[in-house]
Design a protein that fits this description.
Helices cover 44% and strands 18% of the residues. The chain contains 15 helices and 25 strands. The chain has a five-stranded antiparallel sheet with strand order 13-12-11-10-16, with helices on one face. The longest helix is centred in the first third of the chain and has 62 residues, at 126-187. The radius of gyration is 39 Å and the shape is elongated. The protein starts with a helix and ends with a helix. The model has no long low-confidence stretch (mean pLDDT 90).
Length: 713
């Protein structure tokens, strides 16, 4: 080997050793830097004309495993989604409390029924009656608070979505800029490992917001897509768009996250393409989990109100109230009354004596006053009201307006009470005459709390032309699939409205089948292949002529009508202001009872016993959220609701813990490859130091040889 060859080999060895030492030193300096992957100098034998001339540094290699990185990214996304769910459900559970928590909704419900039990022991004790009314109001105040809390949670999730979108855009912009930088450096043959480390750090953060998959080009550029292929970083800056509503109310139609391509093309919907990460967790919490819990809460609240009203409407206070003012049923005078069975309406004196009795037999379509001749009722709500008004005569009046029936005694010394026939009780859609109209409700509501309307398909729907229902169709993965508007037509029937809903071309018939059952309740069943599609009511400007109740409120369509029921109930103001109006007794009347007989007494507790048993009597609960429809007692349903919320929270916590374990495991495996080991770097530094010394010795030997040769000359 010539002296030039020896010197060249020595110099190349020095250069290579220096590069190796620099790489090892840089690794040690970044041992605790997040996202940093260790590097190493890439060495290659240098040959010139077939003659070995030492070694050359071809570049600095970043040690990373694309498969482990992909696994880690997936684990990060899954972990963030699970954490969002767990945190959200933990907040909900802490607000609901447990069955035995003194301040929980469940404990308040039990306490209210205990107070009713105490009041019924001695109905004459005003303190016990006041306590019962206050405890009942405390329960409904709590359901109202919980419902609003769920709304606040949805609002908070909406706000977090906006913040997550904003940060995601910042990450995407920086990644796009890094792509431009890495491409120019790679072309110039520079070291791109620093940029690659920053890209890795940003990818880990981005994966926390949305599930992604990546592809690294030969020049170091990254192509980033969502898990199902929507481009986020490719040839330019892609930005996400989202406008928060700033509200958590049930009637809000939340916007979708969209993605704006860099070429100015039309923005595309992105929400349905997000399958994991914080954004997925927030969207799922806001749009599915919290509404399900809200519906479950509303079903319990409405069930409690209806069970109490069932008992209270077949009971009477002492003395009986002068006025029985019903709730807005959504009905109009022209509707068929559709009652069967029989009931009795009594006018009583201040001491509980019978002034007048009106026996109403819906099966025969007649009523009689004090056992007199039968008089026809007619078939409509209006004709029924008119017949009762005529029968009351000078002793009272009956009217029907704005969807509500009102009965009133003429004298301030008289009162009114009703009693169901023990053999064939009156019935419309599963509720008696007084119960359906809410004439003696213990729990008042501002709109229908149950959706068994009692309407038949032949009844005119009473909605006017120019009003309509608007629906947004959403696929199971959250993608909007179209909008449908269902117009109302003046003069058409309820059956016509159902037909319009079922129209496969202009209605919702492609997705579901709507039916009106014998109780006038509207329900839907998904069509085959469309299970999981949501038919979201986004607008309803209908108003039933004469009552003001909308189509969705009447038939229970959409979250405002169903979940919103938790916020519409309160204890009757008349009972709260005068506890003597709490109906703890019952009419003592039969076929032989005549005017002047004692029919109400102050010590009667039969009505109170009915109110007590409302907690344990089996009734029907509709499917709500994750709880299937079932016949259950109020007590058992409350326990099911508590169990449902508790199991949701426990399951979410378990899934979050499992996801965190997977995330940590994936990160550990990735770190084992990418991470810096001080022992390994020390060995590398020792090796390169020895290599450097050897090259230096070779260079020294070449110098000594040159000096010896020169001295000979």
């Amino acid at each position: 080997m010539s002296l030039n060859g020896i010197i060249g080999s020595a110099l190349s060895g020095l250069s290579a050793s220096q590069a190796g030492l620099n790489s090892a030193a840089n690794n040690v300096a970044n041992v605790n830097t997040p996202g940093y992957a260790r590097t190493q100098a890439v060495l290659q034998a240098l040959n010139v004309g077939g003659v070995a001339m030492g070694v050359q540094v071809t570049g600095i290699s970043r040690i990373a495993d694309v498969y482990l990185q992909a696994a880690s990214i997936r684990a990060i996304s899954a972990g963030e989604a699970a954490k969002i769910q767990a945190d959200g459900l933990d907040k909900v559970q802490s607000q609901f409390g447990k069955l035995d928590d003194e301040g929980s909704m469940f404990a308040r419900l039990s306490r209210a029924f205990s107070s009713l039990s105490q009041a019924s022991v001695d109905p004459s004790q005003s303190v016990a009656r006041l306590s019962a009314a206050a405890d009942l109001q405390a329960f409904f105040d709590e359901t109202n608070r919980l419902s609003q809390m769920i709304g606040d949670q949805r609002k908070d999730a909406d706000s977090q979505i906006q913040a997550a979108v904003q940060r995601t855009n910042e990450i995407l912009s920086e990644l796009s800029s890094l792509n431009a930088s890495v491409q120019s450096i790679a072309v110039a043959g520079g070291d791109t490992s620093g940029i690659a480390n920053r890209q890795s750090e940003l990818l880990d953060e981005l994966a926390g917001y949305v599930d992604i998959r990546t592809e690294t080009k030969a020049d170091g550029r990254l192509v980033i897509r969502t898990g199902d292929g929507v481009a986020l970083v490719e040839t330019g800056v892609t930005q996400l768009k989202y406008t928060p509503t700033g509200s958590g109310s049930y009637g809000v139609s939340y916007g979708q996250i969209s993605v704006q391509p860099p070429n100015g093309a039309q923005a595309k919907e992105l929400s349905g393409h997000i399958d994991s990460g914080k954004l997925f967790g927030l969207l799922d919490l806001r749009d599915r989990v919290l509404p399900e819990i809200a519906n479950e809460l509303a079903e319990l609240t409405a069930g409690a109100a209806d069970a109490l009203n069932l008992a209270h409407n077949n009971s009477a206070s002492y003395p009986a109230p002068q006025t029985l003012a019903g709730r807005n049923t959504g009905l109009v005078s022209a509707d068929l009354h559709n009652f069967t069975g029989a009931t009795t309406l009594a006018v009583t004196g201040s001491t509980g004596t019978l002034v007048k009795r009106i026996d109403i037999n819906f099966d025969t379509g007649t009523l009689s006053v004090d056992g007199g001749a039968a008089v026809a009722l007619g078939t409509t709500v209006g004709s029924l009201t008119a017949a009762i008004n005529t029968a009351l005569g000078a002793d009272g009046s009956a009217s029907f307006a704005n969807g509500a029936m009102t009965l009133a005694a003429s004298s301030a010394n008289n009162g009114l009470a009703t009693l169901q026939d023990p053999t064939t009780p009156s019935d419309r859609a599963g509720r008696g005459f007084s119960h359906f109209f809410g004439l003696n409700d213990l729990v008042s509501s501002t709109r229908p709390g149950f959706f068994e309307t009692g309407l038949s398909g032949a009844d005119a729907h009473q909605f006017t032309t120019g009003t309509s229902l608007s629906f947004q169709i959403t696929t199971p993965d959250g993608r909007p699939s179209g909008s449908i508007n269902i117009p109302m037509v003046t003069g058409e029937t309820v059956a016509d409205a159902v037909t319009a809903l079922n129209n496969s071309a202009t209605g919702l018939g492609r997705y579901a089948t709507f039916t009106l059952d014998a109780d006038g309740k509207l329900s839907s069943v998904p069509k085959t292949g469309y299970d999981g599609f949501d038919l979201n009511l986004t607008a309803d400007d209908t108003s039933r002529s004469g009552s003001g109740v909308s189509f969705s409120q009447l038939f229970g369509i959409g979250l405002p009508a169903t979940a919103g029921r938790s916020e519409i109930f309160s204890v009757n103001a008349m009972v709260r202001s005068d506890s003597s109006k709490l109906a703890l007794g019952q009419l003592n009347i039969d076929a032989a009872t005549v005017a002047g007989d004692l029919v109400l007494t102050s010590g009667d507790a039969r009505g109170g016993q009915l109110l007590q048993t409302a907690m344990t009597v089996v009734r029907h609960f509709d499917a709500a959220g994750s709880i299937n429809s079932a016949n259950s007692s109020l007590q058992d349903y409350a326990a099911r609701l508590a169990g449902s919320i508790g199991s949701r929270a426990a399951r979410a916590e378990s899934e979050a813990a499992s996801a965190e374990v997977l995330r940590a495991t994936a990160q550990t495996k990735r770190s084992n490859v990418e991470g810096v080991s001080l022992d390994e770097e020390l060995a590398s530094m020792t090796l390169y130091q020895q290599s450097y010394n050897a090259s230096a010795r070779m260079l020294q030997a070449a110098k000594e040889m040159t000096d010896a040769l020169m001295s000979i000359v």
